[in-house]
User: Fold this.
Amino acid sequence: MAKKRANTKTPEASTSFVRSIELDRVVFYGVLVLVFALPLFIWPGISEYGYGKTIVALIGVSILVALWGVSGWQKKAWTIRLPWITLPILALVVVSLFSLLQATNGRVVVQSLMLVVYFALLMLLIANTVRDRRDVNLLLFAILVSGFLAALYGMLQYLGVMRGPTGGRGLTNIISTLGNQNYLGGFLAYLLIPAFVLVVRLRSGWLKLVSILLIAFNFGMVLLVQQAGAAIALILAAVAFLVGLAIFRPIAPIRRNRLWLLILIGTLVLTFLIEAPSGPLNSVVGLSQDGKSWIVRMWERNAGAVRSWDWWIGWEMFVDHPIVGVGLGNYKLNFLPYKAEFLATPRGEAYDFHIDRAAQAHNEYVQVLAELGILGVLALASFLAVLIASLWRQLRRNDEENRLDLLFFACGIVAFLVHALVSFPAHLPASSLVLVLVGGLIFSRVYGDTDRFIVTLTGWKLKTTLAGLVVVGLIVSIVAGRDLAANLLMTEGIEQAQFGNPYGARALFERSLRLDFAPRQTYYHLATTQIRLDDLEGAQENLEKCFTRFTDETVYLSYANLAANARQFDRAQEVVALLLATHPKEEISLRARYLEAIILAQTGDPIAATALLEQLILDAPLFEPTYVGLGSVYEVRGMPVNARQTYEAGLEVVETKLKSAEETLETKKQRITAEEYGRLRVEIEQLQQARETLRQKLASLPSSSLP
Assistant:
């Protein structure tokens, strides 16, 4: 009887086991699709390429984690393998929460922290769902093909076959699916050496050959984009491989695959000769733009000085907030005020050129220091220490076959960490994906099942955890979907404003704000629309919100103008002084200097205002607002002849610029973008208004002022 009962239960248990195994495979193939699709995903209308990838990652990981939990529920036990690296990641999460104490914007901290958590979850998914070398090969081949397609797209843009941001050809036309040539070069550099695993692991000779060709093409694109940081990262990763080779000596797999490895090396050498900026065959194939080496280009572009400026500003943030930093993701919100503070120091005097507002510090370690303080540095140091220790133990305990794989994977991590010294790969979804994928593969059961914490959830613990994850996943997915809709509405609103429909633009911006979890530049765009609709009070209120959400030179300038118009002269002067202290770009600087002079004139110092405006005309004779302001000051001082001469000179400048703008608009009418059209239309409107103002000023002068 007992035997009969056992037999009747066996088919049910077997069916449940088969279903759970099938669901595990569904989770793995879901990860595979995500790994392939994320680098290639773009959505027309999104303001930034990485933003769309972030939304896809949040929703995709939410679904996959829920499916993973359901597979454990089917098996009545959910076993989760947590590698040691989980502990410092948890420490980083805790430290990020502490950074809320000094954050300018807490929602930005939460938003940034959620991305950290979700990419960590993706690494755990990979580590737990990869079960054999076939899975390793599938994931590597998927991301290699994805990288190739992104590189091919970039190459076609470089050659002018496909349209890029400039509509021409060359490096400035490369944006691919990643954002710009720097992002593309970094992504391909981190991926390059880990992809070598395919050459030694795949069984099919044809697939090995295809992998070699894909690797070579991606390598050629790394060379072509001429990003010194990515090239140096790749060189140091190769050096790290040679050091690892000498220490761990995985000779057998190299000897067994020596023919394929020689083909790979030969193909890479040939690619270097063809596509390197200083390669002898570069000009032959038409890929060279000049004969300069990448070292010369790096110095000519002054990239080192610009980056060091970003780093010093990060240091200033750390000095003010040494324990918990300015808040995760808040570097960009504090950049301009700290830029002004740094330029006022003796060290800052050497930086007498303009740089744009930096959203990132162009050094991940400096950014951690600035945003998370000493606690963040300790968490990052523990992450690196555990990573190195885990890799070392893995290499010591594995056989030669796996050692070679692990060395290739380690080189990808080295390239990422080195490039992080001059870039921000951890802030780019596609670049982070390479690190997460490589880390997940290293900590998968394929390369050993030690150095792990095993957590097994059953009964109510399993159900509670699964229910919590499903709820959190739904909330995150809904918020992500709303953010995506908000971003699309903002882009549509910008287009409506450019086409001269401020009422429609305002409605779109307001809808966007209602949907967005942590709105930023939408407040600025709404404020500029409100200015056009003469809602100056509402515009000033929204610009004030930008000070803790979207700090930009144009935000400060617009706010100072509104404050001056509202006769809040002290506040306007304070903002103008801060703006000028940041060494803004020329156009912003001219307008800020003009506003500074007008404030002086209206607060009772017309002589000082006259001196500033006269100097401004000498520095920028085509800047038409100065003529209106200086003529008005002359009138106040009882100098009508000077006023008339100034107005007439200004009118001549305006007529010349207006004619040029109208001719440009007419010439480009059939092939103009919405952005170009909006810029020209606003310029023409401003010039027409200036012409009318100057005519009225001239008409109001007494006839006795005629020279």
